[in-house]
Amino acid sequence: MDIVLVIIGLILCIIGIVGSVFPVLPGPPFGWLGLLLLELTEGIPTNYWFLGITFIIAIGIFLLDYMMPAISTKKFGGSKAGAIGAVLGLIIGLLSPIPFGFLIGPFAGAFIGEFVFNKTKGPQALKAAFGSFLGFIASTFMKLFVSFMFLGLFSWEALSHWNSFF
Q1: Distances from the Cα of 78 to the Cαs of 26, 65, 148, in angstroms?
Q2: pTM of the shown model
Q3: From residue 95, how far is each of 79, 89, 135 by CA, in Å?
Q4: C-alpha–C-alpha distance, residues 166 and 158, integer Å
Q5: Nearby residues of 45 by Cβ (< 8 Å), 6 or more positions away
Q6: CA–CA gap between residue 63 and residue 132 (Å, rounded)
Q7: What is the pLDDT along the chain (166 residues), one digit of tens a residue?
Q8: Where are the domains of the chain?
Q9: Distance in Å from the first CA to the final CA of the chain
């Protein structure tokens, strides 16, 4: 049974990396589930501190991922309308069948929010929309970093206790 848990845990960590790039899947929470399955094996002593800290990191990155486009929109001079537009654009982009909707959505949402609802001039609205795009890129890199960190921790734990599985 331990081997099955290790294999499923490894698959979840890999899905976490894929989910960091493909925004429909929550990457770091999948990676954390992989760590949890590894910790549930009999060959590895359960470390609740390790699970708790990595859980807080996974949930924090998951939540920050949805807030980053709005935060960076405001950082680039956008208003509340632009930030709300970025979040709504992200949701619509994720749910729509448009290719790369997850990239286009926050940008278009921030631009529309600024241009239509806040009556911001074109260049400033584009600057706020660009900020939304940069926030999305930054959150993707954060998710990738954490997901690769979780895979590294998984590999370290699994390889250091390899003999206990057989």
Answers
A1: 27, 18, 32
A2: 0.79
A3: 25, 10, 19
A4: 12
A5: none
A6: 16
A7: 788 999 999 999 999 999 888 777 889 999 999 999 999 988 888 889 999 999 999 999 999 987 887 788 778 887 778 878 888 888 888 788 877 787 788 888 888 888 887 776 778 788 888 887 888 888 889 999 999 999 999 999 888 877 766 6
A8: 2-165
A9: 11
Tokens of 60: 């924090």
Both structure tokens of 35 = 């760590």
Q: Tokens for 157? A: 């734990």
Q: Which residue has the tokens 């501190």?
A: 49
What is the token pair recorded at 75?
Answer: 């950082």
Residue 46 backbone phi and psi in degrees, to 5: -70, 130
149: amino acid identity, one letter: M
Q: What is the mean pLDDT of the chain?
A: 86
* Cα torsion through 13, 14, 19, 20, rounded to 10: 80
Q: Could you tell me if 91 and 120 are in contact, meaning their C-beta atoms sit under 8 angstroms apart?
A: no
For 47, the token pair is 């470390």
Cα atoms in the Cβ-side hemisphere of radius 13 Å centred on 68: 18
Interatomic CA distance for residues 102 and 41, integer angstroms = 37
The alpha-helical segments, DSSP class H, found in 22-165 are 27-39, 48-75, 80-95, 101-112, 122-160
